[in-house]
Amino acid sequence: MSEVASELARVKGAFSQPTLTLLHQRQAPVVITIFRAVFGRDNRPVPTARLHAQVEEHLARIRQAGELEVPNGSVRDLCHRWMRGQWLVRSLDERGHEVYALTSHAQQALQLVKNLTRDRATLSEHRIATLLGTVRRFNAEANPDRTARVDILGAEIARLQAERDRLVDGAEMPSPTEDYMLEGFTELLSLVSALPSDFARVEERFTQIRGEILAAFRAEERPAGEVIDDYLARADALMTATPEGRAFEGAFALLRDDALVTRLRDDLGALLDHPLSDRLLGEAERAELRGTVRLVREGLDRVLSQRSRVTATLKEYIVSHDAVRDRQLEQTLRQVESELMTWMASTGPRATHDVVLLPGRVGLDHLRERFHDPDDDVLPDRISAADPDDAPPVSLDELLAQGGPQLSVLRGRIDEALTAPAPAGSLGQVFDSLEPALRRPVEIFGLLHLAADRGWLSREGLEAYAAVRPDGSTRTFAVPRTPLPAPDDTTPGTTRDAESETPA
Question: Of 27, 266, 360, 449, which residue is least crowded by CB atoms under 10 Å?
């Protein structure tokens, strides 16, 4: 393949990246504007419902402004389309809520547009000085010649010492020009703006590793230990072999050094307090520089959270999944061994038994399904306490009339009926002889209960019980006839009917 053809292949590969596919579409200005308005420069995760509402509102305002190239479809369809384009990613936050965030490709596109909206920097003394200083510092740290490193450090120390002595002696302190300050602020803003996309790339890489680990665990084609070793090796390589990983490690080392963080915050504060900063920087740019430390902290927190999810996946698999499955397998094998020993104790050495390897399938015609209804979770109306003064007055006699059978009174009336000169012949006759207050329907159950305690048996046939309710209404019940025993017979089950049937 010729050099031009290989270069064309590399360019086509670059154009197929999500960053350029986002910028290459007709509706790119509208999409970029919405992303910048919703996520800001920090790319903080936005809850799903809030994102849908903001996108719908921004699209309506853009249409009112007369823009024709506006994406069509519902907000939910647009978000799914942007997810398929690898510009949005959806995940769960620490509280389990669904949120959206920009991918590193979308942030890279936003950063490119942001750089183009600023005044383009031209060749200047500041840029040349920055280039020379970077090359000099790089050479001082990478030069393999010890003598050369010592000479570079000595020359830098002598230069700084001479500048310090000159300032201490009261020499004139030259002020930087406006162009020099503008160039410096432009480069500083460019460096700060690139941080979120760098952190996002590390976070996405951990997300990819987590998905691959889950897929390897589910496939069960390799031992769990091999999968874990592979994860540890790839995590180390991610932090040391990729630019994003090395940038993450450097930022993490920076935040662990309180002196460096304090110096960074003080240097940014001094630059923002410069007399020329108010004229060169807008309010948004000042806020962006002022929040550099917070931006780095939030990016580190998101990366560490994603790495913790990978670790939690490994822990869950090792502690929960494997342990449960191994215990179940061990219990099953012990049960098989126990049943086998029981079977061997009652059979001969050549006995055989057919064992079904797979259990039969259960045939179900239909499973009842009940979907969640949010209305079922609505609490009932609170019961209000009634005013006791509004309750109608109730007497003791009225309460007793609504109660159960008066067993003590009924027991006495039965004893009186047995010793009377003209004794009653059945339990129904005893009931008919009672006053209305003792002929409630519930008293029938009381009489039957007392008769059963005394061993009185019911005969074939029914007799009528004319009951009187507490409100004065009557009701007749057909109850099996229960004869009463003879007065001088104490044998259970002997009744007057039995005595009358005995021949003389």
Answer: 360
